[in-house]
Write a structure and sequence with these properties.
Elements: E1 8-10, E2 13-15, H1 17-31, H2 35-43, H3 46-57, E3 65-69, H4 75-80, E4 86-90, H5 94-100, E5 107-109, E6 123-129, H6 138-148, E7 149-160, H7 168-187, H8 190-202, H9 206-216, E8 219-226, E9 231-237
Parallel strand pairs: 3-4, 3-6, 4-5, 6-7
Antiparallel strand pairs: 1-2, 7-9, 8-9
Helix pairs in contact: 2-7, 7-8
This protein binds S-adenosylmethionine.
Length: about 240
């Protein structure tokens, strides 16, 4: 039997990290053209509110260099882009970035979070929305984010998290039964949305993510639950 290099999963299957990366890339390439529509359908538009708050907390300012990692179609980057700052979208999926080009003119770079071809201490703010969950080597990506941030630079991460206990039964029903059907109907990719649900389940909860960021070296680490913990905004500073 083939030995797995580290414990990696895709959906319910155990796969090695290369295979996981390949499958994740394929998921986003396949859903790219319908990704924005699907987000609206799945969240009843609430993701727009989460992203609005997220971009506001990033406090984009004149002269800053802001990287939106795992930026996909640019939904978050658009909200931070102004005439007097530089916003870059970084994502390994060309299809996702291409799909966003209908809506913006922001510069896009094809790279994965584990290997950022950016200089040390070069970025004022790095945002990552619904992206860190898809990164195969999360600690490596967090180290890279830490490396490229300037001293006093901030990382902001918007990600699904652990909802409050009373919401969990409804949330489980919705995510296991409704989302894959919506994925089949709208994005025509039910497996992609089954992956989405599984990856959310396996993702660290609020406190675990905070501890991970602190272990990398981030300080002033805090989080803000969104919609009773369905999503969460994590913020950390590089001192
Ligand atoms: C759910 S989408 C989020 C897109 C966008 N940030 C948003 O909120 O609409 C996740 C994105 O993560 C990207 N991604 C997957 N693996 C990645 C990696 N190793 N490093 C950086 N981004 C990755 C995918 O290509 C995809 O565009």
């Amino acid at each position: 039997m083939k030995k797995l290099d580290i414990d990696q999963t895709f959906g319910n299957q155990q796969v090695d990290s290369q295979e996981r990366e390949k499958r994740i890339r394929s998921v986003f390439n396949k859903v790219a053209s319908r990704y924005d529509l699907m987000n609206d359908a799945m969240s009843f538009g609430v993701h727009r509110w989460w992203k609005y708050k997220f971009a506001k907390l990033a406090k984009p300012q004149a002269g800053q260099i802001i990287v939106d990692l795992a930026g996909g179609t640019g939904d978050v980057a658009i909200k931070m882009d102004t005439a007097d700052n530089t916003v870059l979208i970084i994502d390994p999926s060309l299809a996702m970035m291409q799909a966003g080009k209908k809506r913006h003119n922001i510069e896009c770079l094809a790279m994965k979070g584990e290997q950022l071809a950016l200089a040390d201490n070069s970025v004022d703010t790095l945002t990552i929305a619904f992206g860190i969950r898809n990164v195969t080597q999360m600690n490596k990506a967090l180290e890279e984010i830490f490396r490229v941030l300037k001293p006093n630079g901030r990382m902001l991460c918007l990600e699904f998290s652990k909802p409050q206990w009373w919401l969990k039964p409804f949330y489980d029903l919705y995510s296991f039964y409704v989302i894959p059907r919506l994925g089949a109907w709208i994005a025509r990719q039910p497996e992609a949305y089954t992956y989405l649900i599984e990856s959310i389940r396996r993702f660290p909860d609020q406190e675990e993510m905070k501890a991970k960021m602190e272990a990398i070296g981030f300080t002033e680490v805090s989080y803000q639950n969104q919609s009773f913990g369905i999503a969460c905004i994590h913020i950390g500073t590089k001192k």
